[in-house]
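Intended use. Records like the one below are meant for learning the mapping from a protein sequence to its folded structure. Do not use them to infer anything beyond what is encoded.
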Amino acid sequence: MFVFEPYPELQKQMNTHSLQVGLYLCHVIACALHGTNADAIPEGFAWEELFALAQQQRVEGISFMGLPAEISKECPDLFHRWSQAADVTLYKELAYKEECNAIECSLNSVGLSTMVLKGTDICACYPRPGMRSMSDVDILYGYVERDSSHGDIFHIVGNSLRQRRTVMNRAMVAAHGVMERLGYRQHDLVGYIRQPYHVELHSWIMEPDSKLFAYYANPWGTARPIKGSTLRFRQSLEDTYIFHIAHCYKHYENNGCGVRFLIDQYVLNNRISTSGCDNKYIARELKKMGLLDFESRLRVLARFMFSDKENNKNTSIDLILLQELLDNNAFGSRRHGEATQIDKRNIAQYLKWRLWPGWGWVEGRHPFVAAHPYFVPFLLIARFFLGVFLKPRRRLREIKNLLYRKMRK
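Structure written out for the chain above:
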C-alpha cells in the first residue's frame, strides 16, 4: 500500500513546512516507481511549491509520473509545465545516450579507451525511461593496457608513475582535439559544452586528494571490456553499485547531495537483489573504503522512503540524513561545501588548505604541472589572483562564513 502518512515519529523533529512538502514529494516518487498515483495533496500544501522542490532536486520526470489525477484539473497550467519538464527529462536521457555513444566512438578512433560512469547506466535500472534526469555525462578515458601480472586488470600505459603522467598528458591533448572537432568548447578542466550537452572527461575516478583515491588509484582496475571491443569498457553491476556509493559519499562529504541519490540507491538495490550479484564482494570492497555504515544508512532510508510501508513498520529512520537530502539541491550547494570544509579545520588550517590543497589536488586537476613541478609556484600565484579578483563576492562570503562559524563555536 502506498498511502501518504504524516509520519508521526518524524513530525516532532521535522516540523518545518518545507520538509513536510519534501516527504510528500518522496511519496509521489514512490508511487511512480511502483506504477500508481499518489494520494491527494495534503491540506496546506501548494502544487507550485511541490513543483519547485521537484525542480530543485531534478526529479521532475519521475515525480510527474506519480502525480494524483486531480492536479490536471486544479492547476492545468502547472500540469502542462510539469509535463513539459518530464518530456525534457525523457528527451535528455535518450539524447545523452546517443551523444555518449558518438563521443566514445570518436575517442576510440584515436586509440583512447573509454568507460561511461554513473548516469547512463543507472538510467537503465529505473522501471521506465524518462524517470532519471541527466544533467551531464561522465566518461573515463585514457591510453590503457592489460596488467602483465594480472591479465584481467587494466591500467594506464606505462611502467612508472612518471611515464603514466606523460601518457595522461598525451591523452588529454588527444581528447581535447576530439571534443573540439565535435563542436564542443571547454569550460573547465574536465567539462565540455555544446548545447544542450554537458560532457565531463575524466582521467581519474576519484581525485588524488580524496580519501577514496587509494581504492581507485588505478581508475581502470574495475573496468571490463565490452563484447566485441578492445577500447570500450564498462563496470560490472557490483562495481557500478560500489562506485555509486563512493560517488554519493564524495558529494555528501563535500557540497552535499539530494533526493535523486536516494532514488538511485533504491533502484540499484532492486536490480542487485534480482540479478544474483555477489553481495559478499560488495560488502568486502565497501569495507576497504570504510563505507559500509554509509551504505547501510542510504540503503535502509531508501527502502523506507520508496518501498511498501507495510514492510517498514520496524524501520529506524536516519533523521539527520533525511533532512539533509530534502534540504539540499540535487548536488548540494557551494555554501554547504564551504561549511563542511570549515568545520574540519581551524582558521589557520583552512586558509592554508585554500592556498595549497595538496599535491593530490595538483595531480588530479593539473596533471601537466604534476609532470613539471617547477610550474607549481606559478600555479599557486594564478590560483590566488584569479580566485580573489575574478570572484570577489564569493571570496568575501567565504570569509564571512569562516569567521561566523568559528566565532559561533
